[in-house]
From TrEMBL:
Keyword terms, alphabetized: Chaperone, Coiled coil, Cytoplasm, Stress response
NCBIfam families noted in UniProt: PRK14140.1 (NF010738), PRK14150.1 (NF010748)
Gene: grpE
Spans through the membrane: none
Complex and partners: Homodimer.
Record-given protein name: Protein GrpE
Entry function: Participates actively in the response to hyperosmotic and heat shock by preventing the aggregation of stress-denatured proteins, in association with DnaK and GrpE. It is the nucleotide exchange factor for DnaK and may function as a thermosensor. Unfolded proteins bind initially to DnaJ; upon interaction with the DnaJ-bound protein, DnaK hydrolyzes its bound ATP, resulting in the formation of a stable complex. GrpE releases ADP from DnaK; ATP binding to DnaK triggers the release of the substrate protein, thus completing the reaction cycle.
Region spans: Disordered: 1-21
Lineage start: Bacteria, Pseudomonadati, Pseudomonadota, Gammaproteobacteria, Moraxellales
Keyword Coiled coil set for record: yes
Highest taxon in the source lineage: Bacteria
Localization annotation: Cytoplasm
Amino acid sequence: MSEQTPPEHDDIPEQAVDAQPQAMDIPEFADDSVDFQTARIAELEGQLKDLQLRTQAEVQNIQRRSERDVTAAHKFALEKFAGSLLDVADNLERALQATPSEESALKALHEGVTLTHKLFVDTMKRFGVEAVDPLGEPFNPELHQAVSTQPSTTAEPNSVTAVFQKGYTLSGRLLRPAMVVVASAG
């Protein structure tokens, strides 16, 4: 094997060979500058931690809001469907009121409609649909729609004396207000 000889310095300029490495212009930090830098780092770390906590809190708020929205969506998903079924309940109630319960053929029809109505109402209750039947209660504009007023000496003023049509709620939210007659001072 051949030995390699070190390269000749003939091709390197003389001033580069003699040159010493030059010191970089790095400012020297005084002790108070180091303290300042340490304090600044601590301040920035504190700000970072604060931002991380705020971000974490915001994420939790978004999650809670999303969960609440999903719960509400599940709870009220049947609102339009349930509202459409209210006419069925009304018609069953009208059929019950229209059929006498004494005659045998009509009695069987009345019992059948009564059982159908009970099953229908129970099914609606199971899914959070509740009737609002405010007869005798104070008028509540959030649940009742006054169709008319009627002077009364027996009923308390501003109370419901007649119900033309029941109202309904779905999980506490109004689907349809009850149509009522309200007593006025006689």
